[in-house]
Structure formats: C-alpha cells, structure tokens
C-alpha cells in the first residue's frame, strides 16, 4: 500500500468529524505556527497563544458539534491541565508546553487517542532530528539568535506539540 492510501485509511478511521477538523485546522493554524516559532526563537510559549487557541475552540465549537459533545470536549482541558502540572512539577516539560497541551485538549477526540499518540511520537522524532540537524549545520545561520540553539539537551517542544495538533486536524479533515 502506498503512503497516500495509508493516510486515507487512517483519516477515515478517525472519530473527529471532517468538517470540524477542517474548520478547527484553519482557525488553529496561525496560532500553532506562532507557538512553534516562539518556542524555537525564545524557548517560550506565550500565554496569549494558549488563550487564543482555547478561545477559538470555545467560540467555534458550538457551531461544529452538538452541545453535549461540545461540553465533553471542553472537559479535556482541565484534565490535561492537571496532568500537565504534574508533568511540569516532575521537570519533564515546561509550563508553556503543559498549558498548550491543555488548550489543545478540546480539539482532540478521545476515540482518536491511539492515532494521536502515533502522530505525536513520529512528529516528536522528526522535529527533534530536524532541530538538531539545523542546529549543527549552516541552516543555523538563518536564525543565529534563536535561544533553542544554545539550550543544551533542552528541546522546544512547542514545535512538536503544535505540529502534532495540525497534523491530527489535517488528517481528520482529509
């Protein structure tokens, strides 16, 4: 089977409605691109981006799904915020990363968890390798002042988290 056939089968098996995924993708993309850029540049995910991402879902959600489902999707946020606080307290992720995951929570359908884990794992590996290759190549000269180049083993997770959300929504919309 070719890659496009696999992507087609994967997107058909996802629980997120295709219209909701498309609208949420279009709305979230600018915020996600800024989150990735900001984390690469300053190793920081600004609070306003987290508020914007969550606010977009709050505003658009009632038009994209029945209200009981909308309420259920909103419950993902406090659950993921608590998990993120524990992960942050353990030193495994930054506070901005935890807040971004919580804000992205309503965009994610629980039935798609296995697909989401695969997307995140593949995206994390690709983002880490790409960042390290750029860090130790001439590409670093395109953005010599980015803080992520000088952080040792620390990695700008916003790049992978935002990318994973966009890939998930794009597959859902496909």
Please provide a written account of the structure.
Helices cover 72% and strands 0% of the residues. It has one domain (3-173). Helix 2 packs antiparallel against helix 3, helix 2 packs antiparallel against helix 8 and helix 5 (76-89) packs antiparallel against helix 6 (95-104). The protein has 174 residues and is mainly α. The longest helix is centred in the N-terminal third of the chain and has 25 residues, at 18-42.
Supply database-style keywords:
8 helices; mainly alpha; 174 residues; globular; 72% helix; single chain
Largest sheet: none
Mean pLDDT: 92
What string gives the helices and strands in order? HHHHHHHH
How far do the termini sit from each other?
Answer: 18 Å
Radius of gyration: 16 Å
Give the overall silhouette.
globular
What count of domains describes the coordinates?
1
> Which segments are poorly predicted (pLDDT under 50) over 5 or more consecutive residues?
none
The number of E-state strands comes to 0
Structural class: mainly alpha
Q: Please report which band the strand proportion falls in: under 5%, 5-15%, 15-25%, 25-35%, 35-45% or over 45%.
A: under 5%
The residue fraction in helices comes out at over 70%
How many distinct helices? 8
Write the layout of secondary structure elements.
Layout: H1 3-12, H2 18-42, H3 47-64, H4 67-74, H5 76-89, H6 95-104, H7 113-135, H8 157-173
Helix pairs in contact: 2-3, 2-8, 3-6, 5-6, 6-8, 7-8
Short description:
This protein has 174 residues and is mostly helical. It has eight helices and no strands. It has one domain.
């Amino acid at each position: 089977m070719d890659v496009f056939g696999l992507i087609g089968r994967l997107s058909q098996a996802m629980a997120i409605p295709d219209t909701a995924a498309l609208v949420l993708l279009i709305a979230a993309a600018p915020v996600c691109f800024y989150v990735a850029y900001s984390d690469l540049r300053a190793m920081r995910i600004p609070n306003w981006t987290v508020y914007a991402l969550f606010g977009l879902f709050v505003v658009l959600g009632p038009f994209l799904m029945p209200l009981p489902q909308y309420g259920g999707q909103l419950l993902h946020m406090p659950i993921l915020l608590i998990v993120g606080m524990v992960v942050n307290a353990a030193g495994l992720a930054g506070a901005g990363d935890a807040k971004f995951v919580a804000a992205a929570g309503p965009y994610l359908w629980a039935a798609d968890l296995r697909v989401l884990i695969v997307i995140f794992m593949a995206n994390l590996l690709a983002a880490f390798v790409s960042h390290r290759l750029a860090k130790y190549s001439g590409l670093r000269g395109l953005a010599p002042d980015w803080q992520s180049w000088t952080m040792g083993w620390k990695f700008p997770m916003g790049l992978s988290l935002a990318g994973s959300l966009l890939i998930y929504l794009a597959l859902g919309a496909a």
